[in-house]
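Here comes my example:
=====
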Amino acid sequence: MYKLTLSVSEMLALSEALDETAAYMQEQRNNNLLSKEDLLLLAVLEEMNMHFALKAYRRQNKYQLSLKPCWAVALDLQFNGFTDKSSYQGNLVQGICNKLQLQPA
């Protein structure tokens, strides 16, 4: 398990990024444009999104999250280096990916 502490703004940015990504991938799935690997990634992102939504519902100043290894890998694959660095949300999501610091095997 990966432990991650997020501020309110980081939690909101991550939730919004997951929402947008899952909605886009769902649209692609409906058009039969996703590979098997992308379908697996979509399932993991949707699971994360539901878990984070339940955590965010409790409104705190800091959020202590425990990430499954597959969640950490999915975050890194989907967002690390692919965020809009000119936007506030993009910088927050990239900062979350930097906090994870996944090491290649």
Q: What stands out?
A: The first helix runs from residue 8 to 30. The CA atoms of residues 12 and 56 lie 8 Å apart. The beta strands are 2-7, 62-67. The chain has a mean pLDDT of 87.
